[in-house]
Amino acid sequence: MKELDQKIKNVFWQTPFLLTCSILLPVLAWDGFLLYPSNEYIGVWFQRSGSLMVLCAVWIEFKLFRINHLSNPISDNVKPWWDHEISDFFSFKYSKLISLLKFISATIAVIGTLIWGYGDSFYRLVH
User: Rounded to two decimals, what is the model's pTM?
Assistant: First the structure.
């Protein structure tokens, strides 16, 4: 049970880093802190940062998907009683945090998709 708990905690330590990167990349691209060729429009780089934002969000979702079964068992039919005890423990301890992180990463994926599709137009509109 300690190994599973450590596996979940490792994902939770990596998630804030990925969330920070997914938010920081478009901010840096908007302000021109990211290096870009001088012959290209900075709005295009803001637009491209949306793809990196989506990539980070999908990476978070993938990591959460790998631990989701520990807190939300899929089937009760073939599990012995000790597996139910373990999944109940993890469900009580982590399911709300996993759900919150899933919601945040899905929101970031949607925002990143909008930036990816329309970031250059939005940049022109604001500047």
Answer: 0.78
